[in-house]
Amino acid sequence: xxxxxxxxxxxxxxxxxxxxxxxxxxxxxxxxxxxxxxxxxxxxxxxxxxxxxxxxxxxxxxxxxxxxxxxxxxxxxxxxxxxxxxxxxxxxxxxxxxxxxxxxxxxxxxxxxxxxxxxxxxxxxxxxxxxxxxxxxxxxxxxxxxxxxxxxxxxxxxxxxxxxxxxxxxxxxxxxxxxxxxxxxxxxxxxxxxxxxxxxxxxxxxxxxxxxxxxxxxxxxxxxxxxxxxxxxxxxxxxxxxxxxxxxxxxxxxxxxxxxxxxxxxxxxxxxxxxxxxxxxxxxxxxxxxxxxxxxxxxxxxxxxxxxxxxxxxxxxxxxxxxxxxxxxxxxxxxxxxxxxxxxxxxxxxxxxxxxxxxxxxxxxxxxxxxxxxxxxxxxxxxxxxxxxxxxxxxxxxxxxxxxxxxxxxxxxxxxxxxxxxxxxxxxxxxxxxxxxxxxxxxxxxxxxxxxxxxxxxxxxxxxxxxxxxxxxxxxxxxxxxxxxxxxxxxxx
Length: 493
Hints:
- The chain is built from 13 helices and 17 strands.
- It is of the alpha+beta class.
- It folds into four domains: about 10-130, 2-Layer Sandwich (Beta-Lactamase); about 140-240, Helix Hairpins (Orthogonal Bundle), CATH 1.10.287; about 245-405, Heat Shock Protein 90 (2-Layer Sandwich); about 405-493, Rossmann fold, CATH 3.40.50.
- Strands 1, 2, 3, 4, 5 and 6 form a six-stranded antiparallel beta sheet that branches.
- β12 and β13 form a beta hairpin.
- The N and C termini lie far apart (about 90 Å).
- The relative contact order is 0.05.
């Protein structure tokens, strides 16, 4: 009997400790907790509820819970309580609504409320956990304000960029128009100067003495140099404005090459240079014959210019899939790695010729690269200072000579040269064919001629998607190369 009484006392003490612990947990809870009877009266509350609502426990216990509901919706709350008690469940209150509670001083604050039904001594009650979300709402509001502010700033920035781009386009157009007009106006008197200097040199109206002949030769040579500069500027301005149209026809590559070599050979012979030519027979191109010869002449004349006495100039032509691949290499002074990108910039001259002077306009390679790319090919350089240079470019073959496409072809359109080179080189190394375009119009024309497997464009060109005869991939950021490779890999499979 004594043992039974002792066990009962221990159980009672344990129950008392558990009840005390539950009370401590209730009081320590960070959210307000209320227990409400079926009649809507508050039966129990914790310390957080006193702090949240501003009432003491003595003031609030026994009051109807509606005292904590905003006046504007208080009259409907009893009906909501009755609906809940008719189908009680653990759930949040006011799903989809922004709830508010009212403090003793009449002020309102945003809350989230969770409801749980409780049975106690045969009576149905409701436990409400009420969380004050004022700080969260202030943070959200501040975040919204910041987002709206950033959106306004971005809109203003974009508007400024659009205006600036329009102004740049207008300035470029005016520049090109001015250069075209100026070039035309300058060429007319230059042709006159060149013609009369040639007549004077022939001595038709009397022989010139040595000094006069030397002066006339200076006038003639410098006039030709100036004419070359004007023609280069006019070509570059047309290319940049997208107004230089190619007249592509099918022709035999070697015939055009021999015409260029006939002009270059005397220049090479004057420096005792050897010309080594290796051309695969029967190659025909789909290209502008005049511009193709201009590309070859620019590369070969540069090779002669920057190669010393007794050096070697090599030309090699072969097929590579749907393109002819042409190498022009020399044993000249070479180009240091730090200059190999800038060498294709307009008006850039890397260094002096073998004679120790700067010659030319600095436009030849810039024009050459743009002409190659306008055809759908690529031009790149391999060189080492003091050990010569090798320029390689590709030009589309005549349609009937193009090999069955085993490597997917991508046309990439972008006005950022770094972006084009940064994508083209690794794609080429990965075994894909690549054609480049700096202007939207060039890209559309290239795609129509080459019928690529994929077209890659910047976001501002996405509205032209329906003008390309292939799937279009929009550039988006640092993962562009991986996305292009993935798309081409899918095509290859």
